[in-house]
Amino acid sequence: MAVYTDISEDELRAFIAPYGVGELKSYKGIAEGVENSNFLVHAGDDTFILTLYEKRVDPADLPFFLGLMEHLATHDISCPLPVKRGDGTVLGELAGRPAAMVTFLEGVWMRRPSAVHCAGVGTGMARMHLAGADFAMQRRNGLTVEDWRPLWQQCLKAHPGMDRDLAQETEALLATLEEQWPRDLPQGTIHADLFPDNVFFLGDELSGFIDFYFACTDALAYDVAVALNAWCFERDHSYNITKGKALLDAYDRVRPLTDPEIDALPVLAAGASLRFMLTRLYDWVTTPEGSLVVKKDPQEYIRKMRFHRTIGSAREYGLDLHARKSA
Amino acid sequence: MAVYTDISEDELRAFIAPYGVGELKSYKGIAEGVENSNFLVHAGDDTFILTLYEKRVDPADLPFFLGLMEHLATHDISCPLPVKRGDGTVLGELAGRPAAMVTFLEGVWMRRPSAVHCAGVGTGMARMHLAGADFAMQRRNGLTVEDWRPLWQQCLKAHPGMDRDLAQETEALLATLEEQWPRDLPQGTIHADLFPDNVFFLGDELSGFIDFYFACTDALAYDVAVALNAWCFERDHSYNITKGKALLDAYDRVRPLTDPEIDALPVLAAGASLRFMLTRLYDWVTTPEGSLVVKKDPQEYIRKMRFHRTIGSAREYGLDLHARKSA
Predict the structure, then answer these.
(1) A224 Cβ partners below 8 Å, 6+ apart?
(2) Quick check: B31 and A3 CB within 8 A?
(3) What's the pLDDT tens digit per position in B46-69?
């Protein structure tokens, strides 16, 4: 739930004027996204999403995020298209914050994705990776292996009474990942946060991707590992191999995974689960009581972290290695 | 900020089917309204507001609220029109809650209303009162003079350490209002919650009224008194007589106030300020820390309560008695 900043009609009218989208007809704060303030805006005959970037987003990164959306939208990947002002720029300022308007994307996100949706996100992600290959800008992943230990240390500092077993387990996994993290996998532009609420469907068809505010330049297979964590576990935290197979096979048919990517998948998936465990834990131990922010339980990702430690090969995630070899 | 209940696409698809509005295209929780969960829904080529009625709304009252919106919308008052299902009913059930869909109304609510907007709401409210005159249903105002003392006693019980001056002041005002409350004023269907966030404008033109979930059968002039409290004070709690005059004169031109209504205005306005002070105070002392509900400060209405106690006649609110007599 996220509207951190309210805006007045006067401010908004002045803000949208240079975008040439017509008269302001209505705007409503929407209860989605946890980092920024989002409004659904009707102007002229069109619908837009207006985003005010709150303090967790570095303004220096905005040209990368908005440039990527524009690149993908113009390369046949359905995602919000930043609206340009008369002077060709997309980024403005509203209520003292950087702000941008993007086109509205129809579609609903799947609260309970099925294997069909997992296949859809696999196919769509692979297409997005191919389309992103010639995107000219670069951005370092700010939440990759080197960033996890400092984040973990901040968690410990904020919450000195951390559970001992969890602490030992995390330290051990950190050490393993720092040693084993693959450095030579195919790189590209990744979404890095492909959770179900960032992928829209119309019926069973994927209708688009949103929320590129963690996008960065990193191993493509890491994006696959994030999605595996986000889409292929049940509510009881058990891994659903039918969904895993659907996602991996669909991805692999559009952009065949390389052998080093396949070998690295268990390590990447363990890393992805640690990354989300750590950011959730950090929010958990640092968000004051009474805050309006909904805190996500780190437990879910502690369970996933443990699961990935039991995996020996990508076959156990459901990837059909036999079909690949005979193809 | 209000989305208390999330819904899945399957549930929503099943819910909207009987309304015959076409395929579900998108839905977003919106951060407006404090009593219910609201979603902006795109289906077919249209936009709707879907409301899930949470526990503070009595389901037995819903036919009155929805019937009133339909009555007004078909009598030239711009407000959301409840959408009917194939069987002619408007009320359904979603996620275990009563739920209804209404048409979407364009317009923005004024964070900083000017005298022009105050005149707009005065005119619009008078028209709404005339249009509501032949609405067949009745509903008792559940927050009128007899309800205030029990509510105050609940506040005291929940917060035994209540400020002594405030307690004395409230008790004194309660006693005065119980004695002086006018019983013979013209009755009708009133909105009873005409705050700026419930009135939309396109430019300076009023485009509609929303949120009829406090509407009831009561003195028409009480609605005027609520609006006077909600629209005609500045952020520093000072009364703006230019705005008051704009609102009252505009109302009076469409539906002339009777002499007893004019005489009663200071008492009604003090009562309205006590009513909102008490519900805010109740929420303040009973809402647990850490709740997602934004608590509104009762102080604002304590200040207004004090102001109305200084008023001797409706002229001091800005009503142009001279113009009325010479008209």
Answers:
(1) A122, A125, A247, A248, A251, A257, A261, A265, A268
(2) yes
(3) 999 999 998 888 999 999 999 999
